[in-house]
């Protein structure tokens, strides 16, 4: 498996089957900015997830047209067809009933601001991935989120101010070291921001 995060904003994601799993996949894709198309003969309307396009019909291969990703969340038989049709068209498909048949699996995710924790087991045990995610998530509080935002801000300053790539790397690696998080907890964001900028300027 090759871990990656995808920018789905404005892209089409097709969800075949709108049971409990399909609803979760559709909501996640919509939250990522995707244009989500739901295909399910038993669903004529959806509440709680704005912007979904509904196709109240049986699955057919042409419904994959224009999709960047597809989630096959129907019966095993339908999902197998969706996987096969997706591969024929060069579209990546996730199969809910048999993850190893599809092209990708989804990690258990914890998102906090710009920080995203993703834990995967290659489809072997989603339950274990969720438990590991939950245990890790407890270690990252609001101060850690503030640190990530501060690092993003200061990174821009580094690229504007420092022309030497080697020094940029040293600065950015240093700011991502844990003592800065300790200072953020004890001194606050404004003081730490000022201290980082002083380091960037060579003070």
TrEMBL record:
EC category name: oxidoreductase
Organism classification: Bacteria, Pseudomonadati, Planctomycetota, Planctomycetia, Gemmatales
E.C. code: 1.3.1.76
Pfam family, any one: NAD_binding_7
Protein name per the record: precorrin-2 dehydrogenase
Pathway: Porphyrin-containing compound metabolism; siroheme biosynthesis; sirohydrochlorin from precorrin-2: step 1/1
UniProt entry keywords in alphabetical sequence: NAD, Oxidoreductase, Porphyrin biosynthesis
Catalyzed reactions per annotation: precorrin-2 + NAD(+) = sirohydrochlorin + NADH + 2 H(+)
PANTHER family on file: SIROHEME BIOSYNTHESIS PROTEIN MET8
A GO biological-process term: siroheme biosynthetic process
Record field: transmembrane: none
Stretches assigned to the Siroheme synthase central domain: 113-139
């Amino acid at each position: 498996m090759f871990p990656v995060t995808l920018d789905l904003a404005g892209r089409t994601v097709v969800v075949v089957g709108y049971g409990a799993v399909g609803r979760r996949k559709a909501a996640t894709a919509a939250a990522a900015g995707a244009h989500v198309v739901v295909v399910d003969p038993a669903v004529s309307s959806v509440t709680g997830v704005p912007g979904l396009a509904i196709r109240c019909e049986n699955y057919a291969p042409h419904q994959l047209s224009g999709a960047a990703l597809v989630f096959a969340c129907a019966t095993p038989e339908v999902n197998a067809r969706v996987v096969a049709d997706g591969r024929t068209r060069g579209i990546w498909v996730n199969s809910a009933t048999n993850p190893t048949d599809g092209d990708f699996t989804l990690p258990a995710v914890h998102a906090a601001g710009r920080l995203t924790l993703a834990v995967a087991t290659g489809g072997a045990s989603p339950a274990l991935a969720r438990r590991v995610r939950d245990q890790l998530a407890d270690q990252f509080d609001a101060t850690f989120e503030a640190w990530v935002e501060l690092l993003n801000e200061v990174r821009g300053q580094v690229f504007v101010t420092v022309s030497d790539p080697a020094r940029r790397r040293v600065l950015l690696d240093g700011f991502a070291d844990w003592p800065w998080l300790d200072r953020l907890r004890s001194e606050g964001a404004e003081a730490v921001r000022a201290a980082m900028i002083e380091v960037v300027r060579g003070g």
